[in-house]
Structure formats: C-alpha cells, structure tokens
Amino acid sequence: MISILNFYFQDQNTPIFEAIVDLHNDIMFYLIMILLVVLSMLLNIIRSFCLKLNKIRYYYHFEERPDILHNRRLVHGTVLEIVWTIIPSIILFLIAGPSFALLYSMDEIMDPAITIKAIGHQWYWTYEYADHFVQGTVIISSSMRPENELSIGELRLLEVDHKMIIPARTLIRVIVTADDVLHSWAVPSLGIKMDAVPGRLNSLSLFVKRQGVFYGQCSELCGVQHGFMPICIKAVDSTEFLAWLNAQDKLPKT
User: Which of 47, 117, 159, 189 has its CA 20 to 30 A from that of 5?
Assistant: First the structure.
C-alpha cells in the first residue's frame, strides 16, 4: 500500500529546506481557505441558478415567487467585488514577506569554512577541493556505479564510485559550473538545485545538520545519458573529514 508520506517532501536536512517546507505549508493554508470560499460560492450559485435544482420549486411556487430562476441579489454585488479584490491583495502581501526573506537567505553566503567546486561533464561530476591543501587542488571524479557492481542495500542509479565528502554542521560554499553542456546540480533532501552553465559560476550555500548520505541527480536534460549522472553527498563528522583531507593531501595532486 502506498503511504501518504510518499507524496510529501523528503526529510529536511538543511535550514533552507526546512524554511521551504514551512513556506509551502503556510501557502497551502491560504490555498485551502480560498478553495473553501470559492467552493461555497459556486454551490450557492448552483443552488440559485441551476434549472434542475429549482425545477420542482418552480413548478409549485411560481405564482408565489416568479423570480425563482433569477436571483437578482446575486447578479451584481459592489461590496462583493470590493472584497474579492482587497482580500487577495492582503494574501499576496502575507505570502510575499516570507518568500522574499527565504530568497534572500538562499542567496546569502556568509564566511564559508570550505569552498567546493562542482563541475558537470557528460556524464559525470567532478568536485574540486582547493582549500586546506598544501600540494594543490584535489579533484574527485564521481561517476555512477554499474548495476552489476552494487552491493545489497545500495541504490540503483544513485550510487557513485567516489562520493562528495563534506563535514556536517559546517557552512560550505558550492560553486557550480559545467564543462560542456547545461547540467543541474540538485539534491532534494538538502533543498538545493543550481544550474551548471558552461562559462558561468553559480554559487550556493550548504549547511547539513546531520551526518548521512544524501542522493540527487542532474535535473537538466544534458544528453542521452542524462539519467545516469547521480549526485552522492556524504556528510561526516569534522574529525573524520579532517582525516580524509590528510589522506587526500598525501596523494599525488594535479
């Protein structure tokens, strides 16, 4: 049986994604209220104007109410027209405030501890770590693992040979670009999606609240193997991340 949770968002693992879900819930409240009001108005119109609903009343009470099929009180309403112009404007203002605040927080990057460059290729990703290395930049190539190499419990079309390793609870700046065609670096459980455009650098901030492995995929049609360039991010403890940095620093650099 399909659970109702399958139709909702994934678990929120970043403050930005939590804010996105909260904004979605707030807007859904307004949408439900608007739906109920509009539905009640439509039912009232059907009850007042529909011939089928009023046929029996018209037959028996036409002499008492000759305007049974023409409810003049609902044909024109100046007050109603003013109300349904002002109320949507107020609702738009209530939605605009949290929306602008969320858009600003998504674009704001304040003093990141680490900068990682994600580059899209046909059809794989590379991650460049330029900070904290003595011998130069470390480049990690991340390609999808074939189905015949997967172990039990690993996810098909989402596992990669080299994950993007990041520390949890650390502010990270990710610079996204592409080498050949348009790509899109998207991880739904982290609430991030950024276009990778050749010759252009787009940046986003990333703050993962807990340790774990998070999956995503390219969200731009980039060629015949568009569905085979997954994104796999592993958030680890800061101590484990520093140990990984030291191990990478000892390898030959490009």
Answer: 159
